[in-house]
Design brief:
With about 220 residues, the chain is α/β, with parallel strands linked by helices. The protein has a single domain, classed as Vaccinia Virus protein VP39 (Rossmann fold, 3-Layer(aba) Sandwich). Helix content is about 45%, strand content about 25%. Strands 3-2-1-4-5-7-6 form a 7-stranded mixed beta sheet, with helices on both faces.
Length: about 220
């Protein structure tokens, strides 16, 4: 099948992208690792010994970065519907984290310990219909928020990608209800023309009861 002009432009831009070149040189699976690195440099998300869950982790760029930052005393659980090649030090769980069986598997791995940081770089497959794509992006962020509410320890952090547009302000309100602080981040590694933006929520207001109740259900 012949490539469209738009796909040809994307390929040309991708090949020339400085972050793509860096990822290939430095062994990261995706250029997205540099978005996380920039946010971490500014906001100090990671430290040794943290327990981190990476939602929608494939192909693994964020998990690669996270496992280096938490060190051997930390844990990184990578969850995705898609298969992902193994990463040293990363625990892979293939499945839909919104399903009870997969959530319970995550909780079993945690063994009653609350998560310190949930990260999500999930994005919908773009259909080209702006309203539909926007709604799906916000929905994915809401799913990440619900997962975080069931797994984070009190005071913990959520970093989630979404897109600016309809539903964005409502999502921010939901996050403010559950966290002490909320900030927006647009790292340089995020393409300028992209509407993607990251919401960084700190100081989770929940308690361990939500973890125990899900595990018991």
């Amino acid at each position: 099948m012949p490539r469209t002009k738009s796909s040809q432009r994307w390929i040309a831009r991708h090949v020339k992208d400085e972050y793509v070149k860096r990822a290939q040189k430095e062994g990261f699976r995706s250029r997205a690792a540099y978005k996380l690195a920039e946010i971490d440099a500014r906001d100090h998300l990671f430290r040794a010994g943290l327990t981190v869950v990476d939602l929608g982790a494939a192909p693994g760029g964020w998990s690669q970065y996270a496992v280096k930052r938490v060190g051997p005393g930390g844990r990184v659980l990578a969850v995705d519907i898609l298969p992902m090649e193994p990463l040293q030090g990363v625990e892979l769980i293939q499945g839909d984290f919104t399903e009870a069986a997969v959530l319970n598997l995550v909780l079993e791995r945690l063994q009653g310990r609350g998560v310190d940081l949930v990260i999500s770089d999930m994005a919908p497959n773009i259909s080209g219909v702006a309203a539909s794509d926007q709604a799906r992006s916000v929905y994915l962020a809401e799913l990440a928020l619900e997962f975080a509410a069931k797994t984070l320890r009190p005071g913990a952090t959520l970093l989630v990608k979404t897109f600016q547009g309809e539903g964005f302000d409502a999502l921010r309100r939901q996050m403010r209800e559950r966290f002490e602080k909320l900030a927006t981040r647009k790292p340089k590694a995020s393409r300028a023309e992209s509407r993607e933006i990251y919401l960084l929520a700190r100081g989770f207001r929940g308690d361990r009861g939500c973890i125990e109740s899900v595990a018991a259900s």
